[in-house]
Predict the structure of Carbonic anhydrase.
Amino acid sequence: MYAALLFAALCFFKTTYACIYKYGTSLDSLAAPNGGTPWDHGLHGDDWIGVDATGKPWACMSGIRQSPINLPNANILDNRGSRIPRKFRTQWSYPTIYSNGSNVEVINTGHTIQVEWLSPYAADVEIVVPARQDRNTQITAVLSMNENDQATTVQATPLQFHFHTVSEHLIGGEYHPLELHIVHRVTDLPACTAGCFSVTGVLFELTQSEDNPFLEAIWAAMPMREGAINYLPPDAQIRLEELLPPPSSREYVTYEGSLTTPPCSEGLLWHVMLKPQKISMAQWTKYKTAVGFKECSLKNATATATPSAKSGSRQPRHHHSRHLAAAAPGNPDDYTCNVVAYGTNFRTPQRLFGRAVKLAS
Ligand SMILES: *[C@@H]1O[C@H](CO)[C@@H](O)[C@H](O)[C@H]1NC(C)=O
Ligand SMILES: *[C@@H]1O[C@H](CO)[C@@H](O)[C@H](O)[C@H]1NC(C)=O
Ligand SMILES: [Zn+2]
């Protein structure tokens, strides 16, 4: 926080073409100019008062079902009898994502490193819901189902996955260095025709030496600069299944929460795997650098007079329009940016407000 303020001060007193940018607010950001209130992780979410692109206030500060939270560890949940019946567990099956050189994107959004795919992806993620549904049946219904309830499942389709450092969820008060979020959409419930969301979180712990091989392809393509999108090279693969614990150790904690970034919308079914995966020191360092602070200067000092001019050469193109708009002050390609400090992109834990938190083991 003090570092952010210091950098802001440096910006203020220097000329605009040699300025240190806070991650998330730099010239390079992919954020659309009229995409709602700008935000960053500088105060880890404690200043997220704003509106979305349609003028609707965010739920971040007013909500009472916000994420992330400090999760009790498995023993505590077990002792409380706070369990999901075994037969009502969510099931995950993710086939390998194959790159053809132009269908898998690794995006530095200005807030996170996110992976999206442009080819259809036949993942099989099944969430349990009551067999008899009405318009009020939520995607979170499994949290209050009893052993004898009649159940069925709905499909959750993965949309993208991204990472946070440090972790957003705590377990028994403890942070991990990294957390993976796989974001899914559910549409086949009467209340979800416009889309309900479910996120699966995976925590990572540090190893001294070996890189996690299942992160390698993503890490190799990771754009260091905000606003940049790299394609996974042809023949590269993402074995998403291997970024989760093995199927036999998918013990998880589940609860009703929210998006952990603005607009902090609620009603999400969260799953957080209790068994952490591994990340090497080198991989963690690269991620912290990608979400770090940067010093940016115009490649061509004569262009300083018109920093807001768009050259029209902005790359890359993207199928989702929200990524197409360049940030207001200029074309990122006109700037050279060097990372000057590690960054973070996590939200602080939120109050529970009496919500049910359940263990599935
Ligand atoms: C790669 O996949 C994308 C999305 O499915 C497709 O549009 C494109 O034509 C493919 N490119 C090649 C070289 O096969
Ligand atoms: C960079 O500066 C040179 C010389 O002043 C000028 O001719 C050129 O148009 C500039 N290029 C850009 C991209 O502004
Ligand atoms: Zn996330």
In short: The helical segments are 2-13, 74-80, 216-221, 281-290. The chain has one domain: 2-360. Residues 2-13 form the longest helix (12 residues).
